[in-house]
Design brief:
Layout lengths: L2 H8 L12 H4 L2 H25 L8 H19 L13 H24 L5 H31 L5 E6 L2 H13 L5 E8 L7 E2 L2 E6 L3 H8 L3 E4 L8 H11 L4 E4 L11 E6 L2 E6 L7 H20 L1 H14 L5 E7 L5 E7 L6 H10 L4 E2 L2 E2 L9 H8 L7 H6 L4 E3 L6 H4 L15 E3 L1 H4 L7 H13 L3 H17 L5
Parallel strand pairs: 1-2, 1-5, 2-4, 5-6, 13-14
Antiparallel strand pairs: 3-4, 7-8, 9-10, 11-12
Helix pairs in contact: 3-4, 3-6, 5-6
């Protein structure tokens, strides 16, 4: 019997018709998070005291009291910021943001209290302890998340969800959760409009219609209902469904009709008694663009200096491995459709462009709008190694320094690719192309054309400097794994 099946048969709430308990209630993840935060606070408190006072005795003084009381204070403080809520575990940046906010607010609180009470808390102790505490807790939560992802990949710690909506939307949701189990959701049943006319969708059984959602939840032991955008279940009907699910403590999730719009850009504002979803426009210009440009060029300049020995060695090896130039330039399309020459280390034979036309004519396109082959015969022996570690893309730092590219952004397209763009895809040209992006950290060349476009549009709609930092961190992991690099 699988772990999920075991949970289905042993975690009843004891209510007639009640669903099985959610993964958060049967797992010890919350307790692990509390234990990690407690240990991080204890380590930071002791380290801060020793750093400030050396091997002095732990005499009664405000610093020593704070050092030993810090674990309890920290756990309570984090709980007050609601960072132990299970909906933040496993995906998104909200968990990390709340830990960071807790660290900032606790630092301010200690400063205010020590000033108001005239407690002699050494500033050096506070300056060292609380930043170290915040950093340790962030690292601890990161490791916990990776552990949770491994468990979810094995089928553990998953919410059992009933998807409600039209067939195409349900099928897309099933595919997405199947591809990314770290989101923590497994669709166990679907409810379609009465005339749905299907027995299964993506391997998920259709258990009933819109009016039978509560009964399907009871029958399948689900703990979550995901309502996708559909006119048949809105307004009064959705409110009635919420009332029925409330009796069984089943979580209700309602998807917006908007595609790939992140939470920070949306807010609920009551107007004339109606809860209206306010959507802010993405900030693609102004000061935020200036900040992004300064960040890109600063990092590119530093990287060019630090990586200059690697550049020289790579260029020499390319010339020794295959006769021809070490660098390769190609026309690409940048922001607002403006063309530019993109630099790369050469990883293919000199006549690669001519052979590309031959391969395309022979039916080896392989990537829809994109031309990509997993076993491309044009790639040299050294070129395969350079692509494996993404070393071939380092010369694009010059494009970043010149302002033609960004560190993070959509994939830089070829002119003939742009010629095949549909109306929505032109949105990719609203920002500078990037050396890396969501497409890079989500599968690289293994992604289909549609998936690449969807990820690029998601990045554009939800850009922030925090998202850029997150993608840079994930890029390192993607390069180390080498998955999808060809």
């Amino acid at each position: 019997m699988s772990v999920v099946d075991h949970h289905e048969t042993t975690t009843s709430l004891g209510r007639p018709g009640g669903p099985s308990r959610t993964w958060s209630r049967v797992s010890n993840h919350v307790h692990l998070a509390i234990a990690v935060d407690f240990c991080c606070a204890l380590a930071a408190g002791v380290a801060g005291f020793l750093f400030r006072f050396g091997d002095e005795t732990f005499a009664y003084r405000p610093d020593a009291v704070l050092a030993f009381a810090l674990p309890v204070i920290w756990v309570c403080w984090v709980a007050a910021t609601r960072a132990y809520e299970t909906r933040f575990f496993g995906a998104g940046t909200e968990e990390y943001r709340r830990i960071f906010d807790a660290g900032i607010s606790l630092t301010a609180a200690v400063a205010i209290v020590s000033y108001a009470t005239k407690a002699e808390v050494a500033r050096g102790f506070v300056v060292v302890t609380l930043p170290v505490l915040t950093l340790l807790s962030l690292l601890g939560r990161y490791r916990l998340r990776k552990h949770l992802h491994l468990r979810r990949a094995r089928g553990e710690c998953l919410r059992r969800a009933v998807a409600v909506g039209h067939r195409e939307a349900v099928a897309e949701l099933v595919r997405e959760f199947g591809r990314a189990p770290h989101h923590g959701m497994r669709i166990v049943a679907a409810c379609l409009p009465e005339d749905g006319g299907a027995d299964r969708i993506g391997g998920v059984p259709v258990e009933g219609g819109m009016s039978e959602v509560a009964e399907v939840v009871r029958r399948t032991g689900a703990d979550t209902v995901a309502v996708l955008a559909c006119p048949e279940l809105a307004g009064v009907e959705l409110r009635r469904l919420a009332w029925r699910l409330e009796k069984t403590d089943t979580e209700l999730l309602v998807a917006s009709a908007l595609l790939d719009i992140a939470g920070p850009r949306t807010s609920i504002r009551p107007v004339a008694g109606l809860p209206l979803l306010h959507v802010e426009h993405p900030e693609l210009a102004g000061m935020r663009r200036v900040v992004k440009g300064l960040f890109d060029r600063s990092v590119a300049a530093v990287a060019l200096v630090l990586l200059s020995p690697l550049w020289a060695a790579t260029a020499l090896l390319i010339r020794l491995d295959d006769p021809g130039p070490a660098f390769f330039t190609q026309e690409r399309v940048g922001r607002d459709g403006l063309g530019f020459r993109m630099f790369k280390f050469r990883t293919m034979v000199v006549d690669a462009e001519r052979r590309r036309k031959e391969l395309a004519a022979a039916g080896h396109q392989g990537g829809g709008v994109l031309f990509k082959l997993k076993d491309d015969p044009r790639i040299t022996r050294l070129g395969a190694l350079l692509r494996r570690w993404s070393i071939d893309e380092l010369p694009q730092l010059v494009n970043v320094l010149r302002g033609e590219m960004s560190l993070i952004g959509p994939r830089p397209p070829l002119p003939d690719e742009v010629d095949h763009y549909g109306e929505d895809v032109f949105r990719r040209l609203a920002v500078k192309p990037g050396m890396t992006g969501l497409w890079q950290v989500s599968g690289r060349s293994d992604l289909s054309w549609d998936e690449s476009v969807r990820l690029d549009l998601r990045y554009i709609e939800n850009w922030s400097l925090v998202l850029d930092m997150q993608i840079l961190w994930k890029t390192l992991a993607a390069v180390v794994r080498g998955s999808g690099a060809y």
